[in-house]
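In this supplementary section we document a worked example of the pipeline. Step one takes a protein sequence of length 435 as its only input; no multiple sequence alignment statistics are reported here. Step two produces a three-dimensional model, which step three serialises into structure tokens for compact storage. The input and output of this example are shown verbatim.
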Amino acid sequence: MASSALLDPIRAAALLEARQSGVPASLTAAATEHRLAGDWRSACAAAAVDIRFDLRQVTGRDLRRRISRDLAVFAPDLLRWHLPRSLPGGGPQKDLVISLAEYPSGATLVVRTPGSDWAAGERLILDLLDHPPVGRKAAQWNIVHHRYLWDAGSAGEYLYRAVVDQQVLAAQDRGDFAEAWRSAGFRLKLSDPATQTSLMQRLPVDLEAISRQVQGITVIRPGKGLAIVLVPQEPYASGVDAYVVDSNQAAGLPLLPWAAWHRPFDHELIRLGLAAPSDLHPLVRNLFAGTPQTVSTLVREVRCQGQIHRLRREQGRWIALDHDDEEARAEELLAALIEPGGPMNGCRAAAEEWQRKHAAQERRFAAGPRYRSALAGQISWALPKDASQANVALLPKPSGREHLPRGRRNTKPLIGSYILPFGERRRTQLDGDKW
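The serialised model returned by step three reads:
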């Protein structure tokens, strides 16, 4: 396993596991089957994506044809795989409006992520806006020019992101960011080296991709109060000046989208030996057909019997690597004989706990519509047997919350103009800074 300053192995394992849990194989298989059959609506339903527009109401035959072509190749499971995720927890980042495609009329096909953590799970919204969303956050997550993140027909383009200058990459891996930027043709200038050096060492930036895309003054916003302002030299000079400044100093400058500058996560996992192609989404896995099919390296360490043991995630199960088959069978027999919650070794206890978490995350997709209907009061609850028509009006109107699991009763619905039960309202223009 190779090491790199760009990607911490523990964080990489957590993000990979979050993707695998958020996009289970059953979801991918169902969505793919419907997409290949030409049923994009059912593909969205299988991938827990709610559709909030009616294609029949779109004005203009040419516009409808363009949108239909995009929907025919839309792979909601692939988009879900590439969604930016937050740690800890691994859920999609909240309040995002991700532009997928823009049309000559100004109409924009977008996907929105939930506005808050909610019992319904990681459901997404597919919508058609009259105008492109505005604001810094909307610009950051614009993937109109990166269709390989959601278009099954363009998925192969993701492979070209792996073409890099090995000298530049080697410098990045060892944390020599100054040499990496210099080798890539950038003149890097830090305004506060004392605080910015450690952030720049770990920044997974694709310098080759940036150098191909910078046409004018642009800014990269990697977070943590940092901004990198890119200023191309005069037409007869070569190179780009890169000023690392406080994010407030770069206000108002054109933003380079995240997908345009961030190193592709899947490529990094394979390159550094942190995952095997079989661990990835099928449309991504196929790009690494020539890569040796090694055993998955999603491994966690736990304390067991006074020692550090390893568990590996393999084919949907956690396998204890430091217990032989005889020990494993004995532990299974012991677990069957004792009461639930009884003593067990550290490896088995950790495996069962992580397996429960995986199962709970998968159930969140199936439970979404039921939870939403309950929270919206749309379920017809049976009246008590002794209730007569005369006193029905005196009965409290059930909200549905009392029928949810106890830990979910105080959960609020998603906030936003597109969420029921507050009425169907549409925004044609969204301020990304306020979402």
